[in-house]
């Protein structure tokens, strides 16, 4: 019988699925031993207000085995601020360098490729500029790579400003649900779509895959898919959490979500044939398809919304079977939303939990916000369909300089789409009342709330910026 190591003998507890590319890890079973040089990289979109604390320089790790790379391709005064901070910590003996590109070719993907070419480490820990890793991040993650087939490792992400507004609470809840789903996928050995920040990559894995690909704006997902289709395992370390900052304006949110939708839908169609060619059980293949095309499903919600007006003329909603289908549909949506919101509420400290009534109200608003988000993903999918893959705009967060910069042109088009959608939903309600077709009215009312919220936030934002 094959001997099983005890928890004290194992750096990590790997649950490896029957499909060779996956594993999940519990960091509580990690311990430290001699580790080869590791490179920590902060990606190009640097802002002084996030880096000024010097927290990346406080990572507990053997000094001779760690180098910190600040990757910068900005074109404003933040480059000077970054260099000043790097010089400050370098003078204190920290192994830190600023790597600056003159041209932003390939955006984030190009910056990462340029950075690893100058890095000495066997592993790369990668963080967006607003991320703050815990001091023991490397001590808990690097030992897990004792498994030579482990190509990359994802850790948890928290949000410093989650309670700043309903917009940030919505994002924290929505992305927290995604992390919850990812935990389940990893534990079951299923394919997952992982973030490109707060993660660690094995250099050999990155180089074997040819590095990050600039043909898509979700280069992290693209590389993760390629790794999972190869001979590499991934791991999700859920109890190591890095803090980040959520977009807190309507313009930043909609531009970010359009980019995500465009990149995720493009990556899904780009890799679906490779996924179907992989040897895996039927249910795992079904889970992989559902995961890869979840963004397309969200975009399809907007198509369903657009159908509500013509359906008032085409369908007789008086039939009992139609009403039963509608009742079941609305009940499932309510259960899904309540599970998410009360689950998030349960995770808060008792004194921080909102009242039951407020939680119920925010449950409805949570559902309503998915309608404008579906529009953002739909717009991203249409742009991907017409070959717009690499149009990248960084997301302003916090109180940095870029908060005062004008949003990119795509923001105006998305805003106009929200205004159109609000008018469209109002028209659909009028038609439904006139024809006594009340089944679809909840969808249109919810759309009015969601698009109305986004337009109100945009109006507030325009007032603040004059």
TrEMBL record:
Q: Which domain of life is it from?
A: Bacteria
List residues traversing the bilayer: 288-309, 321-338, 359-378, 413-434, 441-459
**Could you give a GO molecular-function term held by this entry?**
glycosyltransferase activity
Q: Which residues form a coiled coil?
A: none
Q: Which UniProt keywords apply?
A: Membrane, Transferase, Transmembrane, Transmembrane helix
Cellular localization per UniProt: Endomembrane system
- One GO cellular component term: endomembrane system
Q: What is this protein called?
A: Glycosyl transferase
Q: Which organism is it from?
A: Achromobacter pulmonis
């Amino acid at each position: 019988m094959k001997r099983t190591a005890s928890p004290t003998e194992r750096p990590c507890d790997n649950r490896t699925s029957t499909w060779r590319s996956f594993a999940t890890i519990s960091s509580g079973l990690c311990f430290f031993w001699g580790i080869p040089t590791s490179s920590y990289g902060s990606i190009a979109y640097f802002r002084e207000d996030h880096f000024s604390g010097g927290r990346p320089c406080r990572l507990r790790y053997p000094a001779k085995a760690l180098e910190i790379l600040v990757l910068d391709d900005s074109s404003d005064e933040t480059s000077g601020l970054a260099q000043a901070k790097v010089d400050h910590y370098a003078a204190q003996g920290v192994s830190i360098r600023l790597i600056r590109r003159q041209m932003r070719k390939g955006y984030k993907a190009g910056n990462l490729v340029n950075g690893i070419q100058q890095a000495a480490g066997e592993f790369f820990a990668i963080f967006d500029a607003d991320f703050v890793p815990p001091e023991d991040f490397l001590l808990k993650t690097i030992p897990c790579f004792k498994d030579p087939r482990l190509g990359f490792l994802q850790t948890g992400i928290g949000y410093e400003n989650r309670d700043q507004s309903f917009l940030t609470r919505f994002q924290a809840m929505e992305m927290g649900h995604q992390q919850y789903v990812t935990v389940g996928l990893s534990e079951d050995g299923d394919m997952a779509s992982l973030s490109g920040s707060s993660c660690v990559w094995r250099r050999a894995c990155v180089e074997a895959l040819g590095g990050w690909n600039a043909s898509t704006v979700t280069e992290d997902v693209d590389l993760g898919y390629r790794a999972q289709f190869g001979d590499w395992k991934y791991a999700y370390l859920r109890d190591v959490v890095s803090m980040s900052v959520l977009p807190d304006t309507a313009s930043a949110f909609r531009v970010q979500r359009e980019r995500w939708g465009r990149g995720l839908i493009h990556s899904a169609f780009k890799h679906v044939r490779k996924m179907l060619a992989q040897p895996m059980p039927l249910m795992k293949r079904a889970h992989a398809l559902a995961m890869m095309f979840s963004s397309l499903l969200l975009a399809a919600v907007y198509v369903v919304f657009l159908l509500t007006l013509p359906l008032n003329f085409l369908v007789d909603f008086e039939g009992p079977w139609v009403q039963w289908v509608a009742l079941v549909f609305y009940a499932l949506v309510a259960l899904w939303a309540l599970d998410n919101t009360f689950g998030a509420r349960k995770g808060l400290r008792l004194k921080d939990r909102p009242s039951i009534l407020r939680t119920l109200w925010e449950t409805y608003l949570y559902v309503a916000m998915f309608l404008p988000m579906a529009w953002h993903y739909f717009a991203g999918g249409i742009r991907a369909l017409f070959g717009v893959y690499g149009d990248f705009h960084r997301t302003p967060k916090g109180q940095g300089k870029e908060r005062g910069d004008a949003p990119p042109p795509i923001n105006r088009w998305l805003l106009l789409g929200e205004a159109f959608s609000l008018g469209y939903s109002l028209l659909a309600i009028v038609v439904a009342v006139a024809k006594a077709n009340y089944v679809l009215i909840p969808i249109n009312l919810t759309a009015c709330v969601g698009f109305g919220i986004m337009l109100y936030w945009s109006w507030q934002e325009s007032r603040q910026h004059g």
